[in-house]
Design the sequence.
């Protein structure tokens, strides 16, 4: 009788162990697995390193990693940022907005408004990655030089027989795009004075050329006098002193340059019949 009972006891014990293993197997009523973070919290700030006095510009903040981000890059928790500015004189220096959350893989955007002083402004951003009770942070900075810009000034005059609809002029410096100028609608013979500020932490000594262009306005729609599609003006930069950075941050206005493009005529050609 004893020899017959032993296999049954062994079988019962085996079933019990198997049942315990199944209770802890995937698909059971266990709590969900926390998605592992792909990396530590990291981030960066991008935007122009120089900003004209009194000017403003958009800056972009990227952030990822930490417990809020799964190994495939998906945000499963809360990934947010808080920003402040630091400057010797921070009066009227602002960031708008100064906080927010990252959504998807795109960057957050904020606008830096400078005051009317030449100085160094530091953007300080804290990125916070949170998932349930886990929290990790990192701090990143970006330095912007608020400078006295080179200034390109000019006057546009509509032709005597045609009005000009709103259009945009492209601005190049030494053949490289540096910005645009928006021109409003003009009546015949109406003048428009435009200003373009170019902020930089330095140009090499020697001659440089600003060019305003109508290349993207459609063939024949808008042109300068004589049918020209662009207009250029050159200026000269003197060599800087040995300690270039200190010279600039100290606020000396040695980079100020003013160019005048006077009485440049703009003609608008209409297609088809003349409107009355």
Sequence:
């Amino acid at each position: 009788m004893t020899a017959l009972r032993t296999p049954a006891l062994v079988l019962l014990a085996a079933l019990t162990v198997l049942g315990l293993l199944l209770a802890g197997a995937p698909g059971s009523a266990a709590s969900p697995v926390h998605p592992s973070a792909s990396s530590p919290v990291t981030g960066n700030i991008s935007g122009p390193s120089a900003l004209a006095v009194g000017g403003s510009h958009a800056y972009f903040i990227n952030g990822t990693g930490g417990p809020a981000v799964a190994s495939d890059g998906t945000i499963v928790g809360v990934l947010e940022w808080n920003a402040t500015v630091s400057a010797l004189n921070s009066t009227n220096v602002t960031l708008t907005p100064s906080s927010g959350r990252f959504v998807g893989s795109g960057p957050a955007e904020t606008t830096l408004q400078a005051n009317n002083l030449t100085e160094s402004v530091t953007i300080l951003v804290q990125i916070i990655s949170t998932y349930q009770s886990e929290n990790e942070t990192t701090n990143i900075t970006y330095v912007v030089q608020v400078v006295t810009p080179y200034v390109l000034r000019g006057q546009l005059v509509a032709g005597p027989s045609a009005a000009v609809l709103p259009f945009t002029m492209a601005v190049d410096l030494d053949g490289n795009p540096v910005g645009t100028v928006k021109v409003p609608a003009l009546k015949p013979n109406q003048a428009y004075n435009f200003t373009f500020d170019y902020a930089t932490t330095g140009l090499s000594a020697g001659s440089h050329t600003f060019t305003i262009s109508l290349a993207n306005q459609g063939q024949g729609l808008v042109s300068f006098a004589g049918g020209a599609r662009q207009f250029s003006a050159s200026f000269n930069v003197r060599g800087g002193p040995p300690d270039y950075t200190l010279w600039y941050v100290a606020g000396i206005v040695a980079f100020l340059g003013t160019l005048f493009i006077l009485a440049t005529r703009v003609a608008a050609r209409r297609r088809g019949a003349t409107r009355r």
The first strand starts at residue 42 and ends at 46. The helical segments are 2-23, 244-249.
